[in-house]
Amino acid sequence: MPIAATGDRIAGFSLLNDWSARDVQAWEYQPLGPFLAKNFQSNVSPWVITAAALAPFRVAQPARPTGDPAPLGYLHDDGDQARGAFAVTMEVLLSTGCATADRRRSGLVRVR
């Protein structure tokens, strides 16, 4: 399926958080690669955001870093390059027994 046709088949977007156990990954990684560390836990967002709701936040893809190889031809689409990324603002409030930290960041979030 061409990238230009995927918009007709995507109902919406959700988030998946893959929690990796880095302390386990360090010793099991050699020679077989990550196994138990990568199946530690995963959370899926209970929300699905429609493509129409995200349309106002679409922006051009960020420039590729110098030396980063170009994607294969079937993975490149001019329309996707022009409007295939999302500019989002993220707000996080962390609260522990010791302190509360409010972190705000906005801008283009690279997702690959």
TrEMBL record:
Keyword field contains Metal-binding: yes
Binding, substrate: Q25, Y29
One of the Pfam families matching this protein, by short name: FAA_hydrolase
Binding site for Ca(2+): D18
SUPFAM superfamilies named in the record: FAH (SSF56529)
Residues where Mg(2+) binds: D18, K38, S42
Span of domain Fumarylacetoacetase-like C-terminal: 8-56
Example of a GO biological process term: homogentisate catabolic process
MF (Gene Ontology): fumarylacetoacetase activity; metal ion binding
Swiss-Prot/TrEMBL cofactor(s): Mg(2+); Ca(2+)
Highest taxon above the source species: Bacteria
Keywords: Calcium, Magnesium, Metal-binding
Protein name: Fumarylacetoacetase-like C-terminal domain-containing protein
Protein's organism: Novosphingobium colocasiae
Source lineage: Bacteria, Pseudomonadati, Pseudomonadota, Alphaproteobacteria, Sphingomonadales
